[in-house]
Amino acid sequence: MAGSLRGQDSGSTAAVTVIKRALELESESRYPQALVCYQEGIDMLLQVLKGTKDVTKKCNLRKRISDYMDRAENIKKYLDQEKEAGKYHKQIKIEENATGFSYESLFQEYLNETVTEVWIEDPYIRHTHQLYNFLRFCEMLVKRPCKIKTIHLLTSLDEGSGKEQQSSGLEEIRESLRNHGVQLELEYSSVIHDREIRFNNGWMIKIGRGLDYFKKPQSRFSLGYCDFDLRPCHETTVDIFHNKHTQKI
């Protein structure tokens, strides 16, 4: 079907590429990625339709758009059924030195106005850069569209020289969150190993390295020091699940 669009004006070239990729992903049963490509391709085709004057071409475009909308809707229904049954699973592999994986880029798809409570299980919220990582994650949560009320953090206690820094840092974050109307519940465990984040809208994200998957910047004035989409990452795997009823850690 994508090939039949090639007769359209040059503005449809990008749309053809994206739709072709959507069809490939669908054939490989990579439905979440296919849905994203279909949605993007359909938006592009709608823009092409607006600029098309020829009546025959407009009719052909409308038919193609309708077909792709049907495919996208079928995929969406299937994914919704998988979520309802607790079978949804998506995996993202972050390659060594990859960029474009800030917390916003990674989590924004799963955050909406229904998210009011978050559970974080991460044994390594101890050192300065790890505390800053947790702070950045909290900053993302308090922004719209979330309506966060409570954040639960389960981590391990630093028994060494960094104990006071960890304690004071988390207390400062707790106080700052309180000023934004958010309660931070802290709990420590000496046997914690798993790294897991749960939102009360049913999404659960497991990151192999937890929140600490960014590499140290080359310098204080290098790109990526402030914008974490430009910060190189360590190699890790992100597994995303959906459960109808998310249980507390």
TrEMBL record:
Pfam families documented for this protein: MIT, MIT_C
GO cellular component: late endosome membrane; midbody
Main location: membrane
Keywords, comma-separated and alphabetical: Cell cycle, Cell division, Endosome, Membrane, Transport
Source superkingdom: Eukaryota
MIT domain mapped to chain residues: 8-86
Cell cycle recorded as keyword: yes
Localization per record: Endosome membrane; Late endosome membrane; Midbody
Keyword Iron in record: no
Any single GO BP term: cell division
Topology in the lipid bilayer: Peripheral membrane protein
Record-linked SMART domains: MIT (SM00745)
Signal peptide: none
Binding partners and assembly: Homodimer. Interacts (via MIT domain) with CHMP1A, CHMP1B, CHMP2A and IST1.
Protein name: MIT domain-containing protein 1
Originating organism: Tursiops truncatus (Atlantic bottle-nosed dolphin)
Gene: MITD1
